[in-house]
Every structure is written in C-alpha cells, then in structure tokens.
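Need tokens for this chain, all 97 residues.
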Amino acid sequence: MVKAAALTDGGPAVAVPPALEALLAPGGPAPDGLVLPGHVLAVTGLADYEALHRRRPVPMAVAGFEPAEILLALAWILRRLRGEPSRERVGNAYRRV
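Here are the structure tokens for all 97 residues:
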C-alpha cells in the first residue's frame, strides 16, 4: 500500500517547509509521496521544495484544488515510485499559475 501525505495549509506559507521536514524526519510516518499545495507554491516558488527533495528524496508533486490537478499530481508521484525517471525534482500539476 502506498502511503501519501497531502499537505493542507493552515498558516503562513513560510511554515510549510519545516512541517514537511518534520513529516519526513527519521521516525516519522515516512510517506511514499507528497502532494504539495499549489496555492502556496504560487507565492513561494519551488526552490525550497527542490532543496527538501535533495535532502529527503521522496516523490513530490504540486497540485491545485481541481480534481484533474490532484489526479495528475498523484500520477506523477506513482510514476516516480515505479522507477520512471523525470527531469523535474518536484512535479507540477498546477500549471495555471
């Protein structure tokens, strides 16, 4: 069974990377992939999340709130888990922004 974590933003965008660090820390829940909040990344950009991926190589993809965007993000994560390569460290299914 694939474990995934969807992050919902309840506070300032600056709080997201530390929350993900805690989630991915040794002894944590160890999700197989992360769906990242597109509305936050529209403001902050991908740099912090690409750096996080370098430290904790878990498949991550950005999604908006539309069902199609969420499905695209999940499909991107599943392809990485199956071992398919990608030039992107963090997938982006939220191309509207």
